[in-house]
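We give the chain.
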Amino acid sequence: MQHAKNEIIIKSWPHLCDEVYHNSWQPELGRYRTNFAFRGLSDKNYELRTGLRRNCANHKELEYHILRNFRKYSRTSEPGLTKTQWRLLVLAQHHGLPTRLLDWTYSPFVAMHFATAITDKFDRDGIIWKVDFVKINRSAPKIFLNALKKEQCNAFTVEILEELIPDLKAFDELIGDPFAIFFEPPSIDERIVNQYALFSVISDYSVDFEEILERNPDFYRRIIIPKELKWEIRDKLDQANINERILFPGLDGLASWLKRHYLPR
């Protein structure tokens, strides 16, 4: 897919900071309150494709079996986390199961982390996708737009989705062109809170997120991080305490941070 007109190639650390906050001023509020969601990837050529699409190709029917068995075998102290399919999806995605969700963050610095966390990929350019989630949500069918107006918010929550669409089958059966929405997950643990997470989901399993963006070129930008800048950005993020130790609380996150932090260049 062609994105050349929406690409910004970063020249420096200050340039990167300027770009992620570009158009974040809200004159009606008199505040800097961004309308953007960010997704950082270590390779600019990686597609915005869900784990379910990557792993199950065109076998959408496998989604039911994956979720059914995840609910069956999962052991959690809070059964309510798997009470509905929307909550089950969030929990499954959060623990690495292939789902129809894509991970995003409100934080541009968290996105920078994910674009520079894998040192084995420092030989290639990274990317931060910057998407106006407010415009995406407002382009959804009227039933969704009315729900946002009722709640006076810009992003959906699991509770709103549960009230509107009881399960994934009902979501799939919505008539009309494919559309995407962004929603905030429940704060199920420190990791999801610290990563300032939100998710996107598309009404048609067979459509990739980039196809939604292709039809709406004013909804997004691709911020390219040249490989030559990755070490500088990585070191400055570490100094700002944006690292695995914070974003993945626990011994695994600590070990990942130390392994990378002390890696000789």
